[in-house]
From TrEMBL:
Entry keywords, A to Z: Transferase
A Pfam family the protein falls into: ROK
GO molecular function: glucokinase activity
Similarity comment text for this entry: Belongs to the ROK (NagC/XylR) family.
Protein name per its UniProtKB record: Glucokinase
Length: 307
């Protein structure tokens, strides 16, 4: 296990840190803790402690760590500076995250957008292996997008990571980006909850926990309001997939994130009638992630992959 790196996936609620065997595509050790979103010092301390602990584990295994790769939900520039998480992390504006961690641990540090790195993990080690063009939609609190071409991230900087904000419908549902009718505001966990609130789902189902999972389950059980919410969700997601298909011409589309876990019964509806293929005899397939939460750790560590 000479080719190992630390991968860090910084989420809006949880941060996942792992030691990754890059040759095998295997997460050897993991640490998961709550993401500090308000205080930079506490954030740096939490990340620093986790990296230190993982390094100790690596030393016990006799493994050399080649570097630390990090995925974060924002714009990331070539020098490792993070800019604009749209208020999700209050201190992360023009924030020199790579330099901070490199000084803490005397290890090379590389950073990219989290959704792009999830896509890299899927393309190298998950359902995207063997495909030339892999598009990954991460359906979680928001909507993340990543494209990998021939096992490499498409483009050096994540300027396209706001691709979830394509307008797919005219409505009055505001998105944090300032627009309305964004795909992200319709197919994310937040969007599903907002649709349920507007339909007074909680008042009509007071005995059930008000969660995305509960809405999915009640739709499968025949709850009329939940079925309506899911019908709209699938319709919007299908529109988005059709648009991305024509933009990116992926050989494989992978759906990941917490919301995707409940989509298995709906895959046939997403696959049918994808409009206007980008070229003659074009074919693609839509699958669910099997890496799930490990995708971001693997993709972040893969910033040190020699491939």
């Amino acid at each position: 296990m000479e080719n190992c790196a630390i991968g860090i996936d910084i989420g809006g609620t949880r941060t996942k840190v792992g030691l990754v065997d890059l040759s095998a595509g295997k997460v050897l050790e993991t640490l998961i803790f709550s993401t500090e979103t308000k205080n930079a010092r506490r954030f740096e301390q939490g990340i620093g402690d986790a990296v230190h602990d993982i390094q100790l584990k690596a030393n016990e295994m006799g493994v050399r760590v080649s570097g630390v790769g990090i995925g974060v939900s924002s714009f990331v520039f070539a020098d490792g500076t993070v800019d604009s998480t749209y208020g999700f992390m209050e201190f992360m504006e023009d924030y020199p995250l790579a330099n901070i961690l490199q000084k803490q641990h005397d290890l090379p540090c590389r950073i990219d957008n989290d959704a792009r790195l999830v896509a890299l993990g899927e393309a190298l080690y998950g359902e995207g292996r063997g495909a030339d063009r892999v598009l990954v939609l991460t359906l979680g609190t928001g909507l993340g997008i990543g494209l990998v071409v021939n096992q490499q991230l498409d483009g050096k900087l994540p300027y396209g990571h706001m691709g979830g904000h394509i307008t797919v419908i005219q409505n009055d549902i505001p998105c944090y980006c300032g627009k309305t009718g964004c795909l992200e505001s319709l197919v994310s966990a937040s969007g599903i909850i907002e649709a349920a609130k507007r339909g007074k789902w909680q008042e009509k189902n007071p005995e059930v926990a008000f969660t995305v999972e509960s809405i999915f389950k009640s739709a499968e059980s025949g709850n009329a309001l939940s079925i309506s919410i899911m019908d709209d969700f699938i319709s919007h997601l299908k529109t988005g997939i059709g648009n991305y298909t024509n933009l990116y011409a992926p050989d494989k589309i992978i759906l990941g994130g917490g919301v995707a876990k409940g989509l298995k019964p709906y895959l046939p509806r997403l696959k049918e009638d994808i409009l206007l293929g980008p070229y003659k005899r074009y074919e693609t397939c839509i699958v669910l992630s099997k890496l799930e939460e490990h995708a971001g750790i693997l993709g972040s560590a893969a910033l040190f992959n020699p491939i």
